[in-house]
Design brief:
- By secondary structure, the protein is α+β, with helices and mostly antiparallel strands.
- It folds into 2 domains: 256 residues, no CATH class; 92 residues, no CATH class.
- It contains 7 helices and 24 strands.
- Helix 1 packs antiparallel against helix 2 and helix 1 packs across helix 6.
Length: 349
């Protein structure tokens, strides 16, 4: 398995819409990335169907874009974070407010969780997240991952935020409701100072990827990702949102790969392929996904299982056709509900 780091410049903005203009996704959903790559394949290679076939067949699968954190005291390394699995944490009393603020855990924490996973009516782990160091109170990691040179206080290490931008509607017959706001996910370098020492923390997106592509197919895929870095992903691209600095392929991701795990953590928005696959969802949350294209027509709304869900077994998921009924396009429009999971623990946990 490889990690593809989508490096973000300081001040990079991403309009990753949720259900309203004032809301924004906390990360880059895999279905958004899938749609953006379909467009690039169509524009550059005139072969969107070829890309769709690679993904549908399972020869290429990728997760949503979560956070890869670059720390000045860890040169050449990233800390990789995934959504916090919905488990019971700790053996004793745990501060619920502090636990609720932790939204993401590092791969090192995920490994600890997997090794102490207890299956049952309510899955649980001995790991107490509130006892671990955190970046900005939201990202929990292990002391070993931070290393001995990390600054003592990391609670102010906030490398991203949600910022609202005010816009004005100009070309309309009345001034009623001319002002509106859009929320963007913005990356900012966090600067920390301990005595005479200065540190910084930068945030980027990363995507986990599994594939069985040949060398030419892999080069084409990476080439389209690099074009996407300039084209941008998400909304408001003409306003400078959605662009990356660079695309970096990393082979330093250490994750469990067992096919006989106790549970499976979902890292992509998923639409189960049938009723038995949906029944495999142990703990999950649903989210609506919609969208549109040039013109008044809107894509069909889909309810998907949000990232961070737990499954009893790996499932495939499926592509969902969301072509508007009034569309005049010569091709169908798909939203990716294909699964991407990481195993947790063992079947006899």
């Amino acid at each position: 398995m490889q990690a593809i780091v989508l490096r973000c410049a300081d001040g990079a903005r991403f309009r990753l819409g949720e259900t309203s203009l004032e809301s924004v996704s906390p990360y880059l959903h895999a279905d958004t990335l899938f749609s953006a790559l379909c467009n690039v394949y169509a524009q550059v290679h005139h072969d969107a169907e070829g890309f769709i076939d690679l993904v549908r067949s399972g020869r290429l699968r990728f997760s949503s874009g979560f956070f890869a954190v670059e720390c000045s005291w860890l040169p050449g390394r990233y800390l990789y974070f995934v959504p916090r699995p919905p488990l019971l944490y700790g053996k004793g009393e745990v501060d619920p407010k502090k636990l609720r603020r932790i939204k993401f855990v590092s791969l090192g924490v995920l490994d600890r969780v997997a090794r102490t996973l207890r299956l049952g009516d309510i899955p649980a782990t001995d790991v107490d997240l509130t006892a671990l160091p955190t970046l900005g109170a939201t990202f929990a990691c292990t002391p070993e991952e931070l290393g001995p040179d990390a600054p003592a206080d990391l609670l102010e290490a906030r490398f991203h935020s949600v910022e609202a931008e005010t816009h004005v509607l100009v070309h309309q017959p009345s001034r009623t409701d001319a002002l509106y706001q859009e929320a963007n996910l913005t990356f900012r370098t966090a600067h920390l100072y301990t005595g005479a020492s200065a540190f910084y923390i930068r945030g980027h997106f990363y995507v986990l990827c599994r594939h069985t592509l040949d060398s030419n197919e892999w080069r084409r895929f990476l080439g389209c990702l690099r074009i996407l870095a300039d084209e941008g992903v998400g909304g408001s691209r003409s306003g400078g949102c959605g662009q990356f600095e660079d695309v970096e392929v990393r082979n330093d991701v250490a994750v469990q790969t067992s096919t006989q795990a106790g549970l499976y953590l979902s890292l992509a928005p998923t639409v189960p392929e049938d009723d038995s696959a949906f029944a495999a969802a142990r703990v999950y949350d649903l989210m609506p996904r919609a969208g549109g294209h040039a013109g008044p027509a809107r894509h069909r709304r889909v309810r998907m299982i949000r990232e961070g869900a737990l499954f009893d077994r790996p499932i495939d998921g499926r592509l969902v056709e969301v072509t508007p009924e009034t569309s005049s396009l010569p091709h169908p429009i798909y939203r990716s509900g294909l699964s991407f999971t990481l195993p947790l623990g063992t079947a006899d946990a």
